[in-house]
Design goal:
Elements: E1 3-8, H1 10-13, H2 21-31, E2 38-42, H3 46-59, E3 62-66, H4 77-84, E4 89-91, H5 93-105, E5 119-121, E6 125-127, E7 136-141, E8 144-149, H6 153-174, E9 180-188, H7 192-198, H8 202-205, E10 209-216, E11 219-227, H9 231-249, E12 253-256, H10 261-272, E13 276-280, H11 286-291, E14 301-306, H12 310-317, H13 321-327, H14 332-343, E15 349-355, E16 368-374, E17 379-385, H15 390-412
Parallel strand pairs: 1-2, 1-3, 3-8, 13-14, 13-15
Antiparallel strand pairs: 4-5, 6-7, 7-8, 9-11, 9-12, 10-11, 15-16, 16-17
Helix pairs in contact: 2-6, 3-4, 10-15
The chain binds adenosine-5'-triphosphate and magnesium ion (MG).
């Protein structure tokens, strides 16, 4: 089955906007066990769009077109969709009523150009868009089914998940694409080449399973991809390979598929009924920022002291100046004391990180990072030598300080 995307918009060709919509869809297509065959980007020109759509209708089995459904004169896609399919545009009354109602409820004057968004190619399936004004519509032309979506990323994402993907999955199943099951194992604290080395035997041990790797710093992802005669067999094969891979990678795997590091650490704290407070030096608050990416983080994140200078370490965390002078602000002892001070904010766990992110070395080499955890029953600390530039060291250090919670509860379990 041939799957394509077509993204329209002059802003995509001038570099003003980066096409992220096709990437969003491509990722989901891949997770569904297929892959995009082509992604095309074109400007807001009627003849270009019509020509691109004619080819798309004749070539693709399933496609997504992004952008140009709005009310302005540069929004040409609906008309091009109709022309390429040799059908007229027709006013879709329910959509027009919905748009009028939307304007009324927001107290915005309905100008005539807004009617454009209710003009749909004849015969197309109209799909309500609760996140915006222009509806999605689906044109069937020849063997192609083409979903037209607004370009606004928020609307595109919502419609992609709720309307496009179910249609694509159904088409994949009907189209006889060999059933596939895919799982992404997300790892922290292990290099990509080491993951590769650990799981090198998996494809031989489980015929039909393929592996792929991806790095989104500081995470390394292992993708397992299983193909078999039926969906159930593919799922079963994947489950076996996943168990084997998890056995080989152990606690380096922090989550799978849609899991985020932030939500995994937060979920663990929530499950333990624990709270956490931080004292951050070289990460400048990044660890707290990562943890607070997950909604509801206030249930377990107490706060973070950003104690960047030695003076701040004394003033905010009560670290004695003579200790700072003797040991240095980036040191095991100071980091342990900072973790204690953090816990003193009233948390179950205190976490601290100090280090040299570079590019200038301190009294220790660039990439030297200390992390510590303080709890009522015990403390933990580690000295790390982290690779990369300033940005990399800071991200790795932020993950490392948070990852101590996973280590702590693994030990306690
Ligand atoms: P609107 O009703 O807002 O006009 P539309 O369907 O006409 O919606 P566009 O005008 O093409 O969509 O784009 C709307 C917004 O979405 C613009 O800010 C544009 O930069 C952005 N956008 C368009 N296409 C993409 C894309 N492929 N990836 C990311 N952003 C995009
Ligand atoms: Mg527009």
């Amino acid at each position: 089955m041939r799957i394509e995307t077509l993204c329209t918009g002059d802003e995509l060709l001038t570099g003003v906007t980066v096409d992220t919509n096709s990437a969003y869809f491509a990722e989901r297509v891949f997770a569904a066990g297929a892959m995009l065959d082509r992604n095309e980007v074109i400007g807001d020109r009627m003849d270009e769009i019509v020509e691109a759509l004619r080819s798309l209708y004749s070539r693709a089995d399933f496609a997504v077109v992004s952008g140009g459904l709005g009310p302005t004169s540069d929004d040409l896609t609906a008309e091009a969709a109709a022309r390429a399919a040799d059908v007229p545009l027709e006013l879709h009354e329910p959509t027009l009523n919905r748009i009028r109602e939307r304007f009324r409820s927001r107290n915005i004057e309905f100008t005539p150009n807004n009617e454009r968004q209710a003009r749909i190619p004849r015969g197309a399936e109209v799909v309500d868009n609760p996140w915006g004004t222009a509806p999605m519509f689906v044109v069937t032309s020849g063997r192609a089914r083409v979903c037209f979506l607004p370009g606004v990323p928020r609307e595109f994402h919502k419609l992609c998940d709720s309307e496009v993907m179910p249609r694509l999955r159904a088409a994949l199943e009907k189209g006889g694409t060999p059933p596939r099951a895919v799982r992404t194992l997300k790892c922290f604290g292990i290099a990509e080449s080491h993951i590769d080395h650990q799981v090198r035997d998996i494809p031989q041990r489980f015929p039909g399973v393929r592996v792929a790797f991806r790095t989104t710093l500081p995470e390394n992802h292992l993708k397992l991809w299983a193909e078999a005669g039926t969906r159930e067999a593919a799922e079963a094969l994947l489950a076996q390979a996943e168990t084997a891979a998890r056995g080989l990678l152990g606690s380096r795997v922090f989550g799978a598929d849609e899991d985020t590091f932030s939500a995994v650490v937060g979920g663990l704290l929530r499950k333990q009924g624990a709270t956490v407070a931080l004292a951050e030096s070289c990460t400048g608050g990044l660890a707290a920022a990562i943890l607070s990416e997950t909604p509801g983080a206030s249930d377990y994140l107490v706060g973070s002291l950003v104690t960047y200078t030695p003076a701040a370490k004394t003033k905010l965390a009560g670290i004695a100046p003579d200790l700072l002078g003797r040991e240095g602000p980036v040191s095991e002892t100071v980091t342990i004391e900072l973790a204690r001070a953090a816990r003193g904010m009233g948390a179950t766990l205190g976490l601290a990180v100090t280090g040299y992110a570079g590019p200038e070395a301190g009294t220790l080499p660039v990439g030297t990072v200390f992390v510590a955890l303080d709890a009522a029953d015990r403390g933990m600390n580690r000295r790390l030598q982290l690779p990369g530039d300033r940005e990399q060291v800071r991200r790795l250090a932020a993950y490392a300080v948070l990852d101590q919670t996973r280590t702590y509860y693994r030990g306690a379990a």
